[in-house]
């Protein structure tokens, strides 16, 4: 055995040899501890059940029959056999008598709304508003009457208060055929 095997308890060596006999060569060291925990939990459950059966039979100690009964009850509750093929076929016939509901979405896969997808427009262009003819004339008049040493404050605020229009374009435009 390997160098680290001397430090392992007997149960861990047994789990390691079981893994090796099943062809498992590479595994994390935690796997042995997990199997040991599962093994101990199973043994405790079986022995606890065997003790209950022994007490029910008014026995002083647990015997082999109690352990066999506990294991059998574990197997019966843990593993169940699938129903017979005839039963499954009858269930399938009954279920398939009911037709499927009509599809509301139409052909193809139902897709989420366009605004919830990653292909929706994801950018905006800022287009400044064009000044009207009257506003541009007022601006020209104000510029002519402006004192170069003291520019008016109103002209500056008018220019900064212009808000641009926001326009978005879809990425995939539908082309007429």
From TrEMBL:
Q: What is its main location?
A: nucleus
Q: What Pfam families does the database record attribute to this sequence?
A: TFIID-31kDa (PF02291)
Per UniProt, which keywords does this protein have?
Nucleus, Transcription, Transcription regulation
Cellular component GO terms, alphabetically?
A: SAGA complex; transcription factor TFIID complex
Q: Which residue stretches belong to region Disordered?
A: 126-177
Subcellular location field: Nucleus
The record ties this protein, via Gene3D superfamilies, to: Histone, subunit A (1.10.20.10)
The domain of life for this entry's organism is Eukaryota
Single annotated GO MF: protein heterodimerization activity
Instruction: Tell me which Gene Ontology terms the entry assigns under biological process.
Output: RNA polymerase II preinitiation complex assembly
Which InterPro entries does its entry note? Answer: Histone-fold, TFIID-31, TFIID_subunit_9
**Positions with biased composition (Acidic residues):** 137-146
Report the PANTHER family cross-referenced here: TAF9 RNA POLYMERASE II, TATA BOX-BINDING PROTEIN (TBP)-ASSOCIATED FACTOR (PTHR48068), TATA-BOX BINDING PROTEIN ASSOCIATED FACTOR 9 (PTHR48068:SF4)
Which family is this protein grouped under? Belongs to the TAF9 family.
| Protein name (Swiss-Prot/TrEMBL) | Transcription initiation factor TFIID subunit 9
Q: Which organism is it from?
A: Liquidambar formosana (Formosan gum)
């Amino acid at each position: 055995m390997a160098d680290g095997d001397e430090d392992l308890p007997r149960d861990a060596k047994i789990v390691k040899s079981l893994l090796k006999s099943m062809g498992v060569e590479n595994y994390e060291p935690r796997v042995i501890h997990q199997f040991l925990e599962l093994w101990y939990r199973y043994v405790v459950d079986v022995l606890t059940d065997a003790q209950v059966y022994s007490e029910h039979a008014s026995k002083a100690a647990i015997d082999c029959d109690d352990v066999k009964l506990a294991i059998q009850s574990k197997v019966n509750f843990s593993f169940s056999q699938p129903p017979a093929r005839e039963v499954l076929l009858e269930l399938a016939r009954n279920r398939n008598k009911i037709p499927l509901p009509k599809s509301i979405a139409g052909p193809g896969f139902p897709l989420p709304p366009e605004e919830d997808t990653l292909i929706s427009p994801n950018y905006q262009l800022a287009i400044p508003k064009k000044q009207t003819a009257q506003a541009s004339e007022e601006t020209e008049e104000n510029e002519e009457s402006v004192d170069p040493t003291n520019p008016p404050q109103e002209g500056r605020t008018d220019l900064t208060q212009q808000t641009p229009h926001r326009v978005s374009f879809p990425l995939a435009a539908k082309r007429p055929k």
